[in-house]
Specification:
Blueprint (H helix, E strand, L loop, with lengths): L1 H11 L1 H95 L1 H12 L6
Helix pairs in contact: 2-3
């Protein structure tokens, strides 16, 4: 008898029962889809964070490498400047030495100075 009553109610309200069951299925499916989307979002967020951290580390290493290169270049420039100053001093000493030698030759041995000038510049002395 109870079965008959339940069957009558089901037959009479089958559309409503079907709608409720379909809404329940849709709600469960939406819940499952939402969880899947949330999991995908969290995975993507974690992946992006890992990529950002990787990029930050690469950037940090590049900055350190640039600093090492800058220091190396600064040291090289300092060495070149020091060598340049030494060369200038040597050149000045050589120039002073040659100048004094030519002054001495001019005072004491003019003929040797004339020959040196003729040899060096390829000109002939005309007194």
């Amino acid at each position: 008898m109870i079965k008959k009553k339940i069957l009558e109610v089901v037959i009479k309200n089958w559309k409503a029962i079907l709608i409720v069951l379909l809404l329940a299925v849709i709600a469960l499916k939406n819940s499952r889809d939402y969880k899947l989307m949330k999991t995908a979002y969290e995975t993507q967020t974690d992946s992006h964070k890992a990529q950002i951290e990787g990029l930050k580390e690469i950037h940090k290493q590049e900055i350190q490498e640039k600093q090492r290169l800058m220091e190396s270049h600064i040291e090289a420039i300092a060495a070149i400047e020091e060598e340049y100053e030494d060369t200038l001093q040597q050149l000045e000493k050589t120039r002073e030495k040659k100048n004094n030698e030519y002054k001495r030759k001019f005072r004491h041995d003019k003929q040797t100075l004339i020959k040196d000038i003729e040899t060096k510049f390829g000109i002939e002395y005309a007194p």
